[in-house]
Amino acid sequence: MIRNMIKPKNNILIIIYILIVLYSLFFVNCNTCKTIKNDCISYYGISNRDQKEENVVYKIRKKSIIISILGFETIFIPYFFLGKKLYEPIKKKDIMNDNR
Question: Most buried among 11, 17, 37, 42, by the most CB within 10 A?
C-alpha cells in the first residue's frame, strides 16, 4: 500500500520544485532600503505606496516579478515581493534642473 503512495514521478517533481525555491532564495535581498547619496531610501510596492518619495526615480524590480511568479502557489511570496518591494529606488531627481 505504501509503495502505491510514493511514486517516482511525484518525487522528482517535488525535488525540482524545492530546488527552484532554494535557487530563487539566492536572489532575495533582505535590505529594506537602498543607499543613494548617503540617504536610505526604502523600496515600495502595491500595498505601501505611501512610502514612495517624490524626489526619487524608481524602476520595477524584475527579481520581484520572477520570484512572485515562481512562488505564486503561496500567498506570502507574491504579497511580499509585489506588495512591499515592487519598485526599487534608482536615483534622486535633480530639483534644480527639473522644469516640471
Answer: 42
CA distance from start to end of the chain: 72
Residue range 46-64, pLDDT digits in tens: 988 888 888 999 999 998 8
**Residue 69 to residue 95: CA distance in whole angstroms:** 37
Amino acid letter, 8: P
The pTM score is 0.60
- The residue assigned the cell 524590480 is 61
d(CA 82, CA 68): 7
The phi-psi region of residue 91 (left if phi > 0; otherwise alpha if psi is between -120 and 50; otherwise beta) is beta
Where would I find the beta strands (DSSP E) of 1-100?
A: 33-36, 39-42, 56-60, 87-92
